[in-house]
Amino acid sequence: MAEKCACSIGRASRGKDERTSGRFILAAAAALVVWFALYRQLEPLSRLVAFDLFGLEPESRAGMAVQFFLYDTPKILMLLTLVVYAVGVVRTFFTPERTRALLAGRREAAGNVMAALLGIVTPFCSCSAVPLFIGFVTAGVPLGVTFSFLISAPMVNEIALVLLFGLVGWKVALLYLTTGLGVAVLAGWVIGRLKLERHIEEWVREMRTAAEAGEAERLTWPDRFAAAAEAVRDIVGRVWIYVVAGIAVGGAIHGYVPENFMAALMGKSAWWSVPAAVALGVPMYANAAGIVPIVQALLEKGAALGTVLAFMMSVIALSLPEMMILRKVLRPALIGVFALVVACGILLVGYLFNAVI
Question: Taking the domains of the chain in order of start, what are their residue ranges?
Answer without folding.
Answer: 1-39, 41-356
